[in-house]
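chain below, 373 aa
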Amino acid sequence: MFTDFNLLSLILSQQLIASELGVAAAVCRAWRSAAGSNQVWKQLLASRFPGAHALQGVASFKAVYARMCGVNPDSQSPTTELSDYQFVVNFTWRKRPVLSACITEPREDCRNTSLFYDEDPVSEHEEEDEDEDEGEEIEAESDEDLSEGEDLSEGDDDDDDDDDDDDDAESEDESDEEEAAAAEALAVQPDGFHMRCWMDMAATEWLWEALSELVGEEEAEALRLKLTGEAAADVKVLQTAVTLLTECVKDDAGVQDLLCLDVSAFRQRDQKMTKLLSHCILEDYVGLHEMSFQGAELPPSDRHRTKLTDKDDPGTDSVSFFASLRPTLDPELGRVRWIFGLRLMCEAEVLNDEGFALAKTEFVHHLERIAWV
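prediction:
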């Protein structure tokens, strides 16, 4: 095995992602020593924080890099288990609590989660949107036909424009190929972690009040009257109502600001707490029968994922906690309950800011990196 320290350090200094150095350090003692050398981490520091590598009298550039990323290298290693954490959830409407719960035994999934992704009926509003989209497509096709006729009548003067269009098309093809390669590489990443828990909501008056303000009392009441007391049917009505809520709330900031979710974490080992999110419902997210909430953006840890392509830079990712609430039928109890979901989401520039859930280890690791009080 190749173990020349100086040459190995030189090679590893070209691996400008901290997570890749972690993989190299696991090979053997010689590789671990080289991967932790100042030569390697000074180069990594220069690539991520230009200018910082010029610091004088630095004993450990690895420690400087960690502190520049907001991590205390002298702190104890974070636990890899969820058992040391508890979560307090509060959902409010007009600042009145409508759902409050404490998750004392967090786990990866609730039972029978196939119901979480069951077949979803299309609401009347969705059907109208589809009809509008079809009409827009027809109009677009007609405009394209007209423009083609105009182009033919213009003669050879458009040759330069055609060349520009070809260049744009090639650029788009390259971008599409890079995105496809990144998506393929993402498929082999560790599975995303979703913490879910069943919760009980005593009443749903808030939902009908919100819909009355968004779509009118008549339509909200017509939907409410479909509730029969039969759990399986009522779940479908509530899911449709929640989807309608997320479709309309983006056009009414007043109602949006009245639907808020607060999630705090309690760490048993030192009796400290931290706030994961405290925000109103997302205005630009049409949920499939669920409401979504986003926490504050966190600095990426540089170990949260591996590079997906040569041009990919995980350091530009946007990382934050996301929470969701969704009405669902509890098959064991045979009644309507709500599923609370919490996950750590990453939006990658290489995927056009498409979001995906990070692994369980990263979920806990980022929990530790938040300020605890």
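Residues 85-126+189-369 form one domain. The CA atoms of residues 159 and 165 lie 10 Å apart.
thats it, cya
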